[in-house]
Amino acid sequence: MSIFKNRLRLVLLTIVLILPLAGWFFFKPVRVLLPELNSVTCITNNICVENLSKKEDAKLLYEKSLNFINNYIGVIESHPRIIFCSSISCFKSFGFHLPAKAKTIGNFGIVIGPKGWSEIFMRHEMIHYLQVEKLGLYSYVRAPLWFKEGMAYSLSNDKRELKKPWSEYRKKFRLWYNKIDKHNLWSEAGNL
Q: The pTM is what?
């Protein structure tokens, strides 16, 4: 019996040690948890940059976008960690590819690509982060795409002409948003 227990412990220990490594190599977005191991420098707990010469730009973009979200949409309780990539290779190292400009990984963090350094893209991703924070990851995943993307395009104040289906998502969100009591936004969203 003790041989069986020892083998079981060894197998469990091996799994516990290998699982994080497997995640690191096969699910690259998990790298937002330890971005310093992925060739970026964290200048604060919440801001990491690939190129240190752009750290002031990153700080300003973060602050302006966070203030916008907090003042006009909802208060983000746990400020997101944002990784600012200046190169395509950095963006790809977190598992993302162009034409994407930025990506939110649940409530773990946001990766901004080299073409995503703007308030519109930052606001959009922070809205996704806020959605996860307010709804919870499970409800966020289950929420309709028109709500998730429509809210991010609409409330970020993104004035761009969008192609389908994004333009339809924004339109459907606006129709829904205009019908609800804004004070109950998150409970209404949770009922979708």
A: 0.84
